[in-house]
Amino acid sequence: MKRMMRIGLTGGIAAGKSTVAARWSELGALHIDYDALARRVVEPGGVALPEIAKEFGPHALNADGTLNRSWVADHIFGKAAEPGARERLDVIEHPLIYDEARWLEANAAAAAERDGNGAPLIVVHDVPLLAEVIDTIPFEFDQIVTVEAPVCIRLDRLIENRGMTVEQAEDRIRSQSSEEERRAIADVVIDSTQPLPDMLAQADALYRQWEA
Hints:
- With about 210 residues, the chain is an alpha/beta fold.
- It has a single domain (about 5-40, about 100-210), classed as 3-Layer(aba) Sandwich (Rossmann fold).
- The protein has helices spanning about 15-25, 35-40, 50-55, 70-75, 85-115, 130-135, 150-160, 165-175, 180-185, 195-210, and strands spanning about 5-10, 30-35, 120-125, 145-150, 190.
- The mean pLDDT is about 95.
């Protein structure tokens, strides 16, 4: 059976995690993007939207039945969020996200087995909230990597690159685990404030270790 390396990748919002994930994808890793899966499970026609509307009320959906992302962002992550709102949303979404991740991983493993080359299958689970779910996520990781940058830099990136207000950026950062919590679960820390070629060289070196 083909060997698989399962990597957990995390990092605070706007810390540079996506850059590292893209690099590993270029090198041949299967990238399982949990943000993308979170968007997928709330697509129209799925089971999540009716459950979200039932739990949070009709304002959670737009008139066309799609998820009202701005309302959810304000009422789940914002200062006006009710205590436990984030956890209530997670109860709905997380099992669906994990099912999608299992399916992607199993398909990739089957394809790699058919391919028959000797290289291990490297699967990167890109989980922004890994520190929060590390005790409940149904996967065990061979290594966990976190990508970090100071909060002031991340705030600037969110405002300049994503068009957030200062308050929105602060709310999103505050809604996530702290850098200390992410470092506590990580085997490797990548500092994204270093020059980009140096950061990519560190990512490349890790990938070569996993391939060996």
